[in-house]
Design brief:
With 660 residues, the chain is of the alpha+beta class. The chain has 3 domains: 1-189, no CATH class; 195-312 and 523-660, no CATH class; 313-522, no CATH class. It has 21 helices and 11 strands. The chain has helices at 2-13, 15-39, 50-92, 97-138, 150-177, 180-185, 198-217, 221-256, 258-261, 264-274, 277-306, 308-315, 329-342, 378-383, 392-399, 460-470, 475-478, 493-509, 519-572, 577-616, 622-656; strands at 320-323, 346-353, 359-364, 367-370, 385-391, 409-414, 423-426, 429-436, 452-457, 484-490, 517-518. A 7-stranded mixed beta barrel has the order 3-4-7-8-6-9-5. A 4-stranded antiparallel sheet has the order 2-10-1-11. A hairpin with a 2-residue loop joins strand 7 (423-426) and strand 8.
């Protein structure tokens, strides 16, 4: 009973340190409850693209679990640091480490019980709200119903019991490793004046520079995948190294500027930061990295959600299309027309284009070489272009022109890049380019991962000879013409969707849905994916923002406790109240605005890399991505300023309570 009363008294007296820890744990329980309930929801299995949705939220739940573990360890280390002096006093007064361990154990039980119970209760409430938000964002149908899975809650409870046990074990190890005098000193143990670590600073600059260079020089979306995580690791390592070295270097440079340094406000601020910059550097680098993660996560997920029309356009040049055998062209066109009348949608056009199957080729000085599907060199695939052939008769029929070509002449259309030169060869077969085609009406211009080439030759025989020269071993796979039947429709969006689903169903019965593409069906499936993706981004962004705010808060508390005595002494030797306030303001601004500036710089240099990765999802609208990035920076900056203002009040109260 004695230990229980003592533990309750400790929690009450240390509420300034415990309150944010408990609130953060409640929030983490909340987030995990929401993710698990959504993931284990019975309605998830009835969704279109259920496997993709479950994979997406499964990935998100794993990220949240990892984040929860890391952040719990981080906040616990701050909490223990604030309580060392109190535990040391108990130890000096005769309480052994075993007894202290009992107090910590009871405190851990009380905190964990309160956090888990409140977290579960609020998590269930917010999971219902999150369910409604997710349903609205994704357009999930009536089959996606809210259901509370007891197993999901049990999983969260067991996980957090494990987290709190881990924190208790870590605290006990820390308690056993230090002597009572070190505990009693608590957070007041100072640091020696740090030396400038030139090697660390240079390596940090080099790593960040290398990450930036990768991002701005990568041109291929496929290559961006392999270098994405390397660039991230380089920037993270470089950020920590840069803060640990350059911050000290900057402070020492300011110290050498005598006119600047020998002023009351600057003198105190620079000296205070100088002697604890090693511990500051890790926290500030963490703030910068977390801020970058918030900006990147919300910018990419937001761009995919709001750029859905651009993605659909890139995936579907036509409202509906599919490749069919030559003898089925008329039958499929007739089916398109007859079903359109039943579903009350208007066909703007129905036609077909006779094209060869697309070949992947690599351009080398206007000489195109075939790239086999068996090629494993990712660098080759990153440079590859898609190539299709058609005859002049087919081109003239569709474009209503009168192009005339001889057997050694071609007309060439490059969709995503300007072709330069007056000749081209395919394999060992050369051609003169009679005409560069600027636009083809039956092939809408779309932005893709790789460039698309359309080559018009004089006749079918020339096409076959060219295919043999280009891909002699794979000729039979590309020799047969595969007409593409396409249709563009207008009308009510729900009717278009019903019409597309009916066409897909009938074509499936005919055994011809392998290449079927529909903008209406894609829109339905894409809304579910991008809506879920944005929802997940919001959850992760909120978690990272909370982590940023708590790190700032704990830094303000720990530094306020250290500076309280120093500012009291400074006032006794003549420093005015106004000078104290100016010094505090200058110190806080220097410390907490550098991370957000660096985070914005990271986002700016990550823009080319992230643009390439978004291309893999079908989003090519870089202007939209840039606008979303700017909006997210402004919103996060406002949130950051609020966090800075609120946590600064804690520091002021700690330091100024002795100001007279």
């Amino acid at each position: 009973m004695f230990y229980l009363k003592l533990a309750l008294t400790n929690l009450k007296k240390n509420q300034r340190a415990y309150a944010p820890f408990i609130l953060s744990m409640i929030f983490l329980v909340n987030v995990n409850v929401i993710m698990q309930i959504l993931l284990k929801n019975d309605g998830m299995n009835s969704l279109p693209g259920a496997d993709s949705a479950k994979s997406l939220f499964g990935f998100g739940s794993i990220v949240i679990l990892i984040f929860t573990t890391i952040f719990s360890l981080y906040t616990n280390s701050f909490l223990l640091k604030q309580r060392k002096k109190e535990l040391g006093l108990y130890n000096i007064l005769g309480m052994g480490k075993r007894e202290l361990g009992k107090i910590l154990f009871i405190e851990t039980i009380l905190v964990s019980l309160f956090s888990i119970v409140v977290g579960l209760f609020t998590g269930i409430i917010f999971s219902k709200l999150s369910f409604l938000i997710l349903k609205k964002m994704t357009g999930f149908g009536e089959g996606f119903t809210y259901s509370l899975n007891v197993m999901s809650l049990g999983y969260v409870v067991v996980f957090f019991i494990g987290i709190f046990l881990l924190l208790y074990v870590i605290n006990m190890i820390q308690l056993k490793l230090v002597n009572p005098i070190e505990l009693l000193k608590g957070t007041q143990t100072g640091e020696k004046e740090p030396k400038v670590k030139w090697l660390t600073g240079i390596s940090g600059i080099v790593c960040i520079g290398a990450g930036y260079y990768m991002s701005v020089t990568i041109e291929s979306p496929l290559k961006a995948i392999s270098l994405f995580f390397i660039a991230i690791l380089l920037v993270i390592f470089g950020t920590y190294a840069l803060f640990m070295a350059s911050s000290i270097m900057i402070l020492k440079w300011l110290k050498r500027r005598k006119k600047y340094y020998y002023q009351p406000t600057h003198f105190i601020a620079i000296s205070n930061m100088m002697y604890r910059m090693k511990q500051n550097a890790v926290g500030l680098a963490s703030i910068s990295i977390l801020s970058t993660m918030v900006l990147v996560t919300l910018s990419t997920t937001g761009s995919l959600f709001f750029g859905m029309d651009n993605v659909i356009k890139n995936r579907n040049p036509y409202d509906m299309s599919l490749m069919v055998p030559q003898d089925k062209v008329k039958e499929v066109e007739t089916l398109f027309k007859s079903e359109a009348k039943k579903y009350d949608v208007r066909l703007k056009e129905v036609d077909h284009a006779d094209l060869s199957d697309g070949l992947m080729v690599i351009k080398d000085n206007n000489n195109y070489k075939f790239l086999s599907k068996d090629t494993k060199n990712s660098n080759d695939f990153s440079k590859a272009e898609s190539l299709n052939f058609m005859t002049e008769d087919e081109y003239n029929r569709l474009e209503k022109t009168n192009l005339k070509l001889s057997d050694d002449e071609i007309a060439l259309y490059s969709m995503n890049g300007k072709f330069e030169g007056n000749s081209a060869s395919f394999g060992n077969k050369p051609f003169k380019i009679k005409q560069i085609i600027d636009n083809i009406t039956f092939i809408p211009r779309v932005s893709g991962i790789s460039n698309m080439l359309f080559v018009v030759v004089s006749n079918q025989n020339v096409m076959e000879d060219t295919l043999k020269a280009l891909a002699p071993n794979d000729y039979t796979n590309y020799s047969e013409m595969s007409p593409t039947v396409y249709a563009n429709v207008s009308g009510d969006s729900n009717k278009q969707l019903a019409y597309a689903k009916e066409m897909k169903s009938q074509l499936k019965a005919m055994g011809m849905t392998d290449s079927f593409s529909s903008a209406a069906i894609d829109r339905e499936e894409l809304q579910a994916f991008t809506g879920g993706f944005l929802f997940l981004g919001m959850i992760l962004g909120l978690s990272f923002t909370l982590a940023t705010g708590l790190i700032i808060y704990y830094k303000q508390i720990s530094e306020g406790m250290q500076d309280e005595h120093r500012y009291d002494i400074m006032q006794k030797v003549g420093m005015s109240h106004q000078e104290v306030k100016q010094s505090i303001r200058g110190q806080i601004i220097m410390v907490f605005f550098f991370p957000i500036i660096l985070a914005t710089l990271h986002l700016a240099f990550a823009f080319p890399l992230m643009s390439n990765l978004l291309m893999l999802f079908g989003l090519s609208d870089k202007v939209l991505f840039m606008i979303i990035c700017i909006i997210m920076v402004v919103i996060f900056l406002l949130i950051y300023l609020v966090m800075y203002a609120q946590t600064s009040k804690v520091y002021y109260r700690l330091v100024e309570r002795k100001v007279v």
